[in-house]
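Lab notebook, bench 4. We co-purified these components, and the gel suggests they stay together. Before we commit to crystallization screens, I want a quick structural picture of the whole thing.
Request: model the full complex, all chains together.
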Amino acid sequence: MSGQLRLLASVAARHLAGRRRQTFVAVSGVAVGVGFFLAVSAMMIGSQNDFIKTLIDAAPHIIISDELRSPPPQPGVRLYKGAAIDLRHYKVRNEVRGLKGWPEILRAVNTLPGAIGSPSLTGAITLRSGGREEALTIVGVDPAVEEKVSTIEDKLRTGRLRDLESTQGGIILGEEMAQRLGLAMGDVVGATSASGNSRSLRIVGLFKRGQTQLSSALGYVLLREAQSLLGRPFIINRIGVHLSDPYDAQPISRRLEARFAYKAQSWQERSADLLSLLVTRNVIMYSVVSAILLVASFGIYTVVSNSVSDKRRDIAIMRSIGFSEGDLQLIFVFEGLALALVGILAGWLLGYGLLAILGSLHFPIGGENERLPLDRSARQYAIAAAASLFSGVIAAWLPARKAARVDPVNILRGAV
Amino acid sequence: MQAQGLSRELVGTPPVILVSDVSLKIDPGSFVAIVGPSGCGKSSLLYLLGLLDRPTEGSVLFEGQDMNPLDGDERAQIRLASFGFVFQFHFLLPEFSALENVMLPMRRLGRLSQAQAREKAQNLLIDVGLAKKLDKTPNRLSGGERQRVAIARAIANDPVLILCDEPTGNLDSQNSARVVEMFHTLAHDQGRAVVCVTHDADVAAAADVQISMLDGRISETDIRKQ
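Here is the predicted assembly.
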């Protein structure tokens, strides 16, 4: 800081020191604003991040399925491209569902940096136990790969995904499904597929209740078990892709779809409606917390405005000494800046304390005693500081303009 | 410094004439007193000469340069570097000590380092007899002491022109005499021009030139010493 700026800052500091009570109130206003900004935004952004993490972890970051966005053109249309032909009532050839050439797709996925692909086969079966029947969608997976791609392992109440490999005919079910069928760990249940194949399956794991991303009508079996039970040997109908950076999912999914024609959905595409809701939620949240900071800046406006009114004599004498209009404006802007800076520091401490308190509280969420998800990143502190500084400087600049416009002659004439 | 046909009029119905067609010349080393009844335009003339106000007609020439075309910042820079002001009500900054008040113009001008400015301010205050009051704030100084601090501040940047508005108006006779003696020293020993608006007969009598004003005009110029 140059000597002249230091001089102006020291005049501002003396003004503030001479008005301790008002200074304290204004600083407290900014501190409370910043503190509550941090608390509210930490909860909102924390819950949002938690929600997005849940969305990301709910399923692989990209799912390549045996579907096509638009049906392939008929052979006649392909053959006579651009010709005036109109084919009607042709007999459609039934093609076997599943990802054709999936080993090549899987290889392509695995060569992407930080990407892991997990092939799986999904199909419907019926479980029978003690006269009760329940429809179930089974997902046949390779446990060694699947545990790298999904978070199933974390959702298990008992058992492990790898137990599917060690137990012949093993199946992992949801607790609710097991309860409906009156089954427990280690019990055997009859399974029949639509193709008529039947098996006896042994329960080797149960995943927790209340998992939105894991339907109670979903079960996991070994991939070759699913292929055998569903009568679709060597076929898979889905490749789940896990990426080191989930936010790369969209461009990568577009590239994969362009290359292999199969539908490749990123987690963002699957959750587009929820993500757009979050944007609205953020706009509302930042509007509310910005209003808190704006109100806090009124305190700065009051202090600086009063200071300008009280210091008219000093302004006149400084003008006569040779201080410029800009100098005087800067003095009062410095006052606002100082109030905002001290308020921000106090607000950071207050916010830090509030976050410590909020972080220590436990709430019953989904039957579990969990802590509030809080975003304690430096970004929130920086946003609160920037918004407070901006509003503080504007709040000070408005009355500071008045100081610059003070006519020293009027003051010197009327001085008493 | 020269004033040529200087007029200052306040817009209104009817318009108020503060200064009307005043021409004068102030030489270095002269002590000029401007006297006249209240409301005759003495202070208004001083503010025009001090570049705190702009004339409605005429011009002020300082070191041969017309001051009218200069903008506010340029006029402020000339006040800072070349002028010093002393007012009746001393106008010290209440939050600053006597020493800091005297350092203020030097720090703003920026020609001296902080240490140099401090040393010079100390010497100036010692010269005006306030060696033991350096760290006192204005509210802990007497009226005479405050005025001496104001004079020390006015000469801090070595101005060529010192403009005073009723500098002894609030002082007793002893302090007044001391202030007049200082003006003599500034003008005659240091070669500065001192222009003093005053009602005080003793101050007027001590001046080299006495300009009498009436209704915004110079009614008489009495040159007593050269």
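Chain A has two domains: 3-56+274-414, 96-262. Worth comparing against the SEC data before the next meeting. Chain A touches chain B at residues 2-4, 7, 11, 14-15, 17-18, 313-314, 316-327, 408-409, 412-413, 415-416 (CB under 8 Å).
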